[in-house]
Amino acid sequence: MSAQIISGKELAARIRTELAQKIKNHSSENMPVLAVVLVGDDDASKIYVRNKQKAAAEVGIGCEIMEFSASIGENALLDVIDDLNANPHINGIIVQLPLPAHINSLRVLSRINPAKDVDGFSPYNTGLLSYNHPDAFISATPKGILELLLSTGINLEGKSAVVIGRSNIVGKPVAMLLTNRNCTVTLTHSKTKDLPAIVKTADIVVAACGKARMIKAEWLKEGAVVIDVGINRIDGKLCGDVDFEAAKEKASFITPVPGGVGPMTVAMLLSNTFEAFCRQEKDPISGNKHHNCGCGHCCH
Ligand code: NDP
After folding, report:
1. How many domains does the chain have?
2. Average per-residue pLDDT for the chain
3. Is the shortest distance between the CB of 205 and ligand 1 below 6 Å?
4. Percent of the chain with pLDDT over 70
């Protein structure tokens, strides 16, 4: 029997509608505002940023895009982050990745006030996630993946999950999230031996290796739930990391590409921004100070 298709497009649209309603009902003089820092001329990054801005406007979140030339120095960029940290009108800050090679991304991401780190990429929020702490801002793609899994209604507890890819922005946080949900997780990567045999053990497969249609139907356990994070192109056409057409005959649930994880990422980012706004309304100080970075500029 063919798998049920998990439509991220529909789920994300529902989440955005509910979020727009929540923001409308929220009694406040201010609107949530997200600042997006964009460095360089990467066309894909520009498209992603415009999409975020459009989606933010639709739910009632302001979005300020700050564009800088690829030649901006690291210290100048850190000053930009410090100013945004100190600005009480900015509730969330994201830095569009990748940054130019001469800039240390970790240093820049670490400089974002954790209370405004709505992408959840700072070591502080990643640390909170590893503690399964409720205050963690969980990065948008992993959070979207969890929502897609929960939308199937399956009980995650005790399930065997195999995550393919160990990047800091997808694979590792997904592995942590699923561990926190009591899955038994195997995190795999390019040096993993006999990946097909490991995938065969999985009740849940999260494919995030960025290799077009690499995960074959015959690797899957009958009835596995498959989340395909990959965004690849073959002959100009978008496809995921899973060989979708064959895999949907083996899986019980599967996400398509496009229309699966992608739309969830933006919805989760907006939901994190509203969450940051609400937290800062309750505790304005946390939103306007840095975490003792010692720079003498942003710390109060
Ligand atoms: P990275 O390139 O940072 O990481 C890829 C990971 O896959 C690495 O850990 C790598 O292993 C592993 N890998 C590569 N080849 C193999 C292989 N043959 N077998 C097993 N593991 C392998 O990618 P990202 O995590 O940033 O993204 C992954 C995919 O998800 C991409 O297609 C990207 O476009 C997409 N993506 C989609 C998003 C969305 O919103 N839908 C958001 C973010 C990403 P190693 O560590 O050993 O090199």
Report:
1. 2
2. 94
3. no
4. 96
We report the CATH number of the domain holding residue 102 as 3.40.50.10860
100 contacts 299 by C-beta, under 8 angstroms: no
- Checking if the pLDDT of 107 tops 90, the result is yes
Q: Quote the ligand 1 centre to 20 CA distance (angstroms).
A: 32
Q: What confidence score (pLDDT) does residue 64 get? A: 97
Q: Report the alpha-carbon distance of residue 297 to residue 300 in Å, rounded.
A: 8
232-234/237-239 β-pairing = antiparallel
**Co-location of 42 and 97 in the same domain:** yes
Segment 39-60 mean pLDDT = 94
Residue type, 138: I
State the pLDDT at residue 299.
Answer: 46
Checking if the pLDDT of 32 tops 60, the result is yes
The β-bridge partners of 35 are 64, 93
Q: Does the residue 70 lie in any domain?
A: yes
Q: Ligand 1 pocket test: which of 96, 231, 234 has the largest number of ligand atoms within 8 Å of its C-beta?
A: 231
Same domain, 148 and 248: yes
Q: Which residue has the tokens 């077009």?
A: 212
In the chain, the DSSP E strands lie at 4-5, 33-39, 62-68, 92-95, 160-164, 184-188, 204-207, 225-228, 232-234, 237-239, 253-254
Q: Does 71 share its domain with 164? A: no
Q: Tell me, in angstroms, the distance from the centre of ligand 1 to residue 210's CA.
A: 4
Decide if pLDDT at 191 tops 80: yes
173 and 242 belong to one structural domain = yes
Q: Is 53 a catalytic residue?
A: no
